[in-house]
Write a structure and sequence with these properties.
Elements lengths: L1 H25 L6 E4 L2 E4 L6 E6 L16 H18 L3 E4 L15 H18 L4 E8 L11 E4 L4 H17 L9 E2 L5 H5 L3 E9 L3 H7 L2 H20 L3
Parallel strand pairs: 3-4, 3-5, 5-8, 6-7
Antiparallel strand pairs: 1-2, 6-8
Length: about 240
């Protein structure tokens, strides 16, 4: 079974590579530098900077699936696949984390203080890269009902383009993964600190439900992680196609 999944994952990766090469041609433009707080970085095509935020990490594992899957690990796996796709397409990608770590101040002594510090650090990164697009990747969980499944995209209320990007990504998930149960995008509220305060174009991608045992199992496979990453990638490209 492992061998079959590996072959399928490679098949998806080849498709992604072809799409990425095509996208890099479609999105090509003169590269230039962007100055951020005294540091100069080389921006990708047309200065497009994507900030990928794998939710949770380190001390904060996030949701735990019905069979023990820890959310932070799935978030990071999908995020790294998305990073590679975007890099291949010529974007400049900034990751909030690339390993199992948190962004909190090491001096924080309680879980609450750690979480607040971690979230503020992520928000500060959006300020460090003004004009970037924030894509935060998470997994969902619903207590008491293991039947609920499917990806759903949320958007920040602060930037009108956030809803447009969320709709583009949601359409990809609906058509490619969940045509039998399409979902609508949802505006985030005050309870989601990062998205309530971020001034960038910002979306939250809940890629599936860890409370659904079938979906939890899929989210642990390379093949499904590639599919989820590709939906986000493709939706982003289509959104950029209408915002050039």
């Amino acid at each position: 079974m492992t061998k079959i999944i590996h072959i399928r994952a490679r098949h998806w990766f080849l498709l992604f590579t072809v799409f990425a090469l095509t996208a890099s041609l479609l999105l090509s433009g003169e590269k230039h530098t962007v100055s951020v707080q005294g540091q100069t970085i080389q921006a990708g095509d047309n200065g497009r900077i994507i900030l990928i935020d794998p939710g949770h990490g380190g001390f904060d594992g996030g949701a735990v699936g019905v069979n023990g899957t820890v959310e932070k690990n799935v978030n990071l796996a999908i995020s790294l696949k998305l990073r590679d796709m975007l890099n291949d397409a010529g974007f400049t990608v900034v990751m909030t984390r690339e390993s199992d770590c948190a962004l909190n101040d090491t001096g924080d002594t309680t879980i609450r203080k750690r979480k607040i510090s971690d979230m503020r650090a992520r928000l500060n990164l959006t300020k460090l890269y003004p004009g970037s697009v924030l894509i935060s990747i998470h997994q969902n969980k619903l207590s008491g009902d293991s039947r609920v499944h499917g990806a759903q995209i949320f958007f920040s209320p602060n930037e009108p383009s956030s809803k447009e990007l969320a709709q583009s990504i949601q359409s990809e998930f609906n058509s490619r993964i969940q045509p039998e149960k399409p979902r609508e995008v949802v505006k985030t509220g005050k309870n989601l600190y990062l998205f309530y305060h971020a001034q960038n174009t910002a979306v939250l991608c809940e890629c599936g439900f860890l409370s659904n045992p079938e979906e939890e199992a899929l989210l642990c496979t390379d093949e499904y992680q590639y599919k989820a990453a590709y939906c986000i990638y493709s939706g982003l490209l289509q959104w950029y196609g209408g915002n050039t």
